[in-house]
Amino acid sequence: MEQYVIKGGSPLVGEVEIGGAKNAALAILAAATMTDETVLIENVPDVRDTNVMIQAMESIGVIVERIDRHTVKINASNIRIQTIDDESIKKIRASYYLIGALLGKYNEAEVALPGGCNIGSRPIDLHIKGFRALGAKVEISHGIIIAKAEKLHSGHIYLDKVSVGATINVMMAAVLAEGRTIIENAAKEPHVVDVANFLNRMGASVRGAGTDVIRIKGVPKLHGTDYAIIPDQIEAGTFMFAAAITKGDVTVKNVIPKHLESISSKLLEIGCEIEESDEAVRVVASKRLGHTHVNTLPYPGFPTDMQPQITVALGLSKGTSIVTESLFENRFRYVDELTRMGANIKVEGSVAIIDGVDKYTGASISAPDLRAGAALVLAGLAAEGYTTVEDIKYIERGYEDFDEKLRGLGAMIEKVNTEKEIQRFKLKVV
Ligand code: UD1
Which of 62, 92, 295, 428 has its CA 20 to 30 A from that of 163? Predict the structure, then answer.
């Protein structure tokens, strides 16, 4: 089984190019099916989740042509309306974006219920509430969500909880609904804005994305366009924390520093130096990290998708830190693995109390989900000795060439399949 083998202890140093935002790409790919004209999308990350989304689109007759590794041309003029229910689509959470997109375009959609990372119960009641407010009948039958409307109309929707997925999904469906729709308590994440910009480029009229009230004026149809996806905030943040955790000096390039402010400010607080330029952020960690308190919150708060990475960093800091997870109730499952590496962390419900230790020691661990998997790799890079990380399929859902990018910064990490390859790696790096 594929795993990473890591020899820890070297600081990461150098520059790394950040790819397109996975979570924006998933929604934008789905949104591209809302026009019969051709759409060209650039900066699509080549990761498992985006590839599964493309496969699902192809399974209903969307023509997807790969121009190069990160550019796709999409034509959805010949969609066969049928249930989207292949095995792979259930594994990605963002399959739900096909409901909003197809419901908007055809007034009907049938998609298998979403899966995704096991980080807690992940209801879709707010998505359903939004579709119903637009006039759709929605039911769940045999694991499939069926949404249908005679004709979608405008609605006034208050989201009880700030939800990225529900905001984007309802926004997509409302773009082609007659009248003016208002979404209140909307999510403000950079990828919500990116999807709104993309829809507007296709002829939609969406205003206010990036604030908590989004106003949509329905239009009769959308047209083709070219669009480049924004850089991935979480990939960038992960490499920024890689610098902090390994006491390194890393510049993340091709980023929007504004999207990284909550991450940069925590790194500053724990003693890193940060240098920002137009499209890059440099993180230097020259001394032992300090402790802090963190509470994950919707944007512009500290992202839940960076919670495991900051916990791994604080596990090595001086003093006691507290990390509170406010979004997903099951997002500390990786702590047991980190404890095996020598961390001193106690989890009580949604709170982790971290007593910093001087060092981690290498161990055989496995990735419980996407972001925690990446964070455990960072722990391995800082640890004394060798670490193996199993279940890297989770990491590959959202990080393109993770091991290769880390090697570019001087990390000793390799993807291996067998015990023999692990031994070969060990001989090579001693
Ligand atoms: C998206 C991201 C995920 C990130 C999360 C929060 C994608 C594919 N995934 O997930 O990486 O961790 O945003 O930034 O973009 N909720 C409900 N009912 C709903 C929907 C959500 O109660 O109908 C709750 C969730 O349980 C959670 C909170 O709202 O507590 C936020 O979830 P949401 O923003 O919707 O996350 P996702 O869109 O699933």
Answer: 62
CA of 163 to the centre of ligand 1 (A): 5
> What phi and psi, each to the nearest 5 degrees, are found at residue 159?
-80, 120
22-228: CATH superfamily: Enolpyruvate transferase domain (3.65.10.10)
pTM of the model: 0.96
**Statement: residue 269 has pLDDT above 70:** yes
Q: Give the integer Cα–Cα distance in Å for 112 and 40.
A: 27
Contact predicate 389/413, CB 8 Å: no
272 is catalytic: no
| Nearest alpha-carbon partner for 245 in 409, 84, 63, 61 | 409
Contacts of 306 (CB under 8 A, 6+ apart): 234, 237, 238, 241, 263, 296, 371
Q: Does the structure show a pLDDT above 80 at 126?
A: yes
Nearest CA to ligand 1 atom 33: 163
Domain map of the chain by residue range?
3-18+231-429, 22-228
Our answer on whether the CB atom of 122 is closer than 6 Å to any ligand 1 atom is: yes
- Domain 3-18+231-429 CATH assignment equals 1.10.10.60: no
Dig out the tokens for 214 from the structure.
């989004």
Question: What distance in angstroms lies between residue 243's CA and the mean position of ligand 1's atoms?
Answer: 28
pLDDT average, residue stretch 245-264 = 98
DSSP state of 88: G
Q: Do domains 3-18+231-429 and 22-228 have the same CATH topology?
A: yes
Alpha carbon distance 278, 281 (integer Å): 8
* Mean pLDDT, range 402-413, rounded to an integer: 98
For the Cβ of 129 lying below 6 angstroms from any atom of ligand 1, the answer is no
- Residue-averaged pLDDT of the chain: 95
Listed in sequence order, the residues at least 6 apart from 70 whose beta carbon sits closer than 8 Å to its beta carbon are: 19, 20, 42, 43, 44, 45, 46
Length of the chain: 430
Long-range contacts of 132-137 (CB under 8 A, 24+ apart): 133/157, 133/170, 134/170, 134/173, 134/174, 134/177, 134/181, 135/177, 136/103, 136/107, 136/173
Residue nearest to atom 22 of ligand 1 (CA): 123
